[in-house]
Amino acid sequence: YLGELGLDGSVRPVNGVLPAVLTARRNGFHKVIVPMANLAEAALVNDIDCVGVRHLTNVLRMHGLEVDEIVVTEREKPAEPQLQKREIDISDIHGQASAVEAMVIAAAGGHHLLMVGPPGVGKTMMAERMTTILPDLTLEQSLETTAIHSVSRTRGQVGANLIARPPFEAPHHTASATSLVGGGAGVPSPGIISMAHNGILFLDEAPEFQTPALESLRQSLESGQVTIARSIGIARYPAQFQLIMAANPCPCGLAMSANRSCVCTSSAKIRYLNRLSGPLLDRVDIRLKVQSLNQAQLQIARDRSDRISSAEAKERVVRARHLLASRLNKVGYSIVSHVPSTILQTSLRPQRNVTAVLDSALRRGLVSMRGYDRCIRVGLTIAALDGRDEISAADLDQSFLLRGSDNLMSAA
After folding, report:
1. Which pairs from 12-15 meet CB under 8 Å and 24+ separation?
2. For residue 213, how many C-alpha atoms fall within 13 Å in the half-sphere facing its CB?
3. Alpha-carbon distance 133 to 109, whole Å?
4. What is the DSSP letter of 132?
5. Per-residue pLDDT averaged across 240-252, rounded?
6. Model pTM?
């Protein structure tokens, strides 16, 4: 029995019905009774009988007690006007072919991505279109993601449909560490990064976020989960998301502009970009410099008819993921960005002659050991997008270039 009982005997809806019913089934229960408003959500779980009730008398009559049935009438909410939403597509991006290719690589391998460029260059538009090229969620992923949204106090009841597409969460830069990680009195509620589980967490104007909020991402980026300790116990929520960050090159945003001059001092630039700490940046696989286009370049880009569409890009991503999964399943993984370093350095380690450039960069201190492993992961993705099982030196060279410098000032 799951629900909230009102003083008038009405059975009111509650959050978290989906994970509760999943747990009941896992523990051998064959039947659950839930509020009628939660019935569609409970019915998402197979192999268990779900019954919806509106009043306590409904439950009593089920057990053979002779009580007068009370019919609860619910006030209907006024219908909200339906706004027609235009379908977004990656072909909307003009003149940024190298950035689009980097997005496809990031989507195929689940790699974290940072875009640095002046305002208005299209960083936010690119991030929003990343979800259009990601594969649909598997049934297991759908259940996990929908269960998290069901538990959340801010999202509440999830309705009759599982979440089938990767979620996209884009908190404002004023968001606190608690809103990202989760919390609250009593049983802590999952935060925004758990809402982005199996999807994308987009931080626009990333250097404007509070330092504690940014640093709170590090645990989930490594472990794929969030741990929240409270006096009543410890709550753990899954948080395996793909991080995308966008940043201006300086406070005024004009450091990379071709036509306008930057008015920021060197110290102001350093303070601004240093808000993204080294340990956080070290966990980002691809760092793009997105340049603005002049009027002539933009017109040429708009006239081109060979821009890749989201459907075509998604097809490439799905093929690459299948190829990677066929190789990674032997070591217990399906997405290359989730493979731990120990396996990269043993079962998946490339030949020594293939890693010559990376080895040299590691010796010279141009890349950390974590960055070294992340370059190998991106290289595996590039090879899979090309339809190859084995990684080549050219793949690792490209992954090293995509990773870019640890010093973001070089972009400004």
Report:
1. 12/37, 13/37, 13/38, 13/157, 14/38, 15/150, 15/151, 15/152, 15/153, 15/156, 15/157
2. 20
3. 12
4. G
5. 92
6. 0.84
